Amino acid sequence: MQAAEILKQHLLKTATLTDEQFDYIFSHFRPISFKKGQVIISPGDKVDAEYFVISGCLKSFYMNDDLKMFILQFAMPTWWASDYNALFYQVKATITVDCVTDAEVLCLSSDDREKLCNEIHQFERFFRWRTNKGYVAAHKRLLSFMDNDAKGRYEDLLRLYPELYNMVPKQLIAAYLGVSRETLSRLNYKRHT
Prior knowledge:
This protein has 193 residues and is an alpha+beta fold. It has a domain at 3-119: Jelly Rolls, CATH 2.60.120. The chain is built from nine helices and eight strands. The N and C termini lie far apart (39 Å). The relative contact order is 0.15. This is Crp/Fnr family transcriptional regulator. It comes from Taibaiella lutea.
C-alpha cells in the first residue's frame, strides 16, 4: 500500500475528508527514509516536526546521567513519534527518537499541522482524537508500572502489541518494561513452558 493510502485510511478512522481535502493535507507531508540505527531527534535539538510511520519501527527514549535507557514509546506503522514536549513548547529536545529498523515515515512540520488544523476542522478533530488516545495510553502504561510486577507488564505488552516482540531486539523490550535482559528471558521461558 502506498504512503498516501496508509495515511488516508488512518485519518479516515476519525475524520470525514473529501478526496480534495486529503490531497491538500497530504501535500504538506514530506516522505523520508531512515536506516536502522539512524537518529531522528537528539537531546538538545530544536524540534519542529512529528513523524507518521509508514513502515518499520522507531523508538523514543530518555537516557539518564547513569546512561540507563528508559524507552517511552515504540512507534510501529500508523503510529506517530516526536519529542512532543519540545515540539509544543518550543524547548530543546530531552529525548532521542531513532530507528529500531529501516523506516519510511511521513514528516509533518509543526507550522503545517497548525495551518491544516486551522483550515480543515476534521483534521483538527483527528489530532484531538489522537492526542486523547495517546494520553489514555500513557496513563494506562503508568498505571501498569504502579500496579503490575514485571510479569504483568510483560503479559500486557504481548497482549496489546504481539507483533512488537518479534520486531524489536529483546534488550529494548526489557528497557521498555523496566527489567533486565535476564528477567525478560526468564519471563519468556516461563511463558513457553
